[in-house]
Amino acid sequence: MEKEEGIDWHHAEQCSKVVCETGEESGLERSIDWKQGLAIAVGVPLLILPSIGYFAGWLWSAAIIVWGLSVFQGFMQNLAYGELATTFPKASGLPGFAQNVFKTRNYTGKYDKSKLVGGFSAWSYWFAWNPVLAIFAILVGFYLHSLFPGLAATFSEYQLSLAAGIVIFGGLILINYRGVSSGALVGYILAALAFVPLIIIALAPYATGDFVLANITSTWLPTDWVWNLNSILVLLGIFAMAQWSACAWETAAIYGPEYKNPGKDVPKALFTCGAICLLAFVVVQTTVTGVLGVDGIANAPIDPMLPVAQAALGDMGSTVAIVMLIAAMVLIIQTAYLGSARAMHSMAIEGNLPRVFGKVNSHGTPILAMVVIGIFNLALISMGTPTAILAASAIGYVCANGISLFAYVKAKADPHLAGLERPFKAPTGWKNVALMFGLFNIPLCLIGIIYLNSIEGSWFSTGVGILVLGLYVPMWYYSQHENHVARIAESQAA
After folding, report:
1. What letter does residue 301 receive in the DSSP assignment?
2. Weakly modelled stretches of the chain, pLDDT under 50
């Protein structure tokens, strides 16, 4: 097997402890198989929940097509990511791929500008997943407000959301303290709690006769829809928000350093999750539109699954739906929590964030990163509107995907990287496909989401997104200075 910078890749892949590309031990342990990775990543289909009403408001029934195309986009992108995951078996998903590709080998200076590109991609990915915690804590508060009238009389939705965030974030830190395999066990339990009722609610209207096909076929697009530059930019913005949900199953690859056999486990986890997403996103939006119609969705833009359950299952159904959705939200919060914590850990190990975020406990869990992320999201809850947070977060996800796809192109073209072993390979010529979708992300979807925010009167979302992403630059320079000082101290000690 070919070696890079003196590292025995085969040995590193078999070790229980994972060593980063620079030779530093990351502390992450190879303790899960593809089924456990899937159990954590399978929360991704639940990301449709905050967008069902929003998309229907813009596109009516055509939202169904957007979801299908977005999952298809996920397959195109994830074929590239699956190959990168087996090329760099010690890298933590998208954050790790970009950082490994965009850095200068054997660099001895203080500021490697190439590392800034990979680090920025990792930070963008962190910001893409991180706000999921706040978004779904807000939704949990909303559903608790609806489920328990006594609570509604005493506490506001914001207070319930904040309390839910504290309980859920704190609980997940304790559950995952002993490692990602513990989180996978919780994932199995919550997946059953979430998906069994979800399947029943999504399919029951077809048996009860509440699904009306005409609600879809008569309202494909808004009556005032015109195919001009405005509508194309709006559609690009919608695709940017859609891929935040429908392409996010790439998170199954972020546990690359923790899979026992990443060459086989990563592709299995990725594409099994993708198949589930394709079915879930299309069926859920189709069912909701067919039962409620566009007008019915407009009357319940935040919680359209509740009237669907009410129509198909009666009063008990609506209660079950709320309980199911709360369980589902805890599942997706865990998915986002683990992914964003490992993104911070990966950046710190690669020298792109302060070293303190690379610390793990005795079980290989980056606890400090999880605590910081929890506190950050408790602050985000104050924004109050899930779609506003999502719109800001989508800016980060577009940047992360675009740069990561360009990283794949570079990894295929660079003679040094092209020679690395690839246990899983995308089809021949996939470099061109990756380039095409990279350009679709940057600049097209990036322009689209900023434009969509502007006509929604939500420059605040764009401002938050740009501010958070921009904060990375001074942090990166601090990290490079910290690493430079550490190298000098090590050389003097030697």
Report:
1. S
2. 1-26
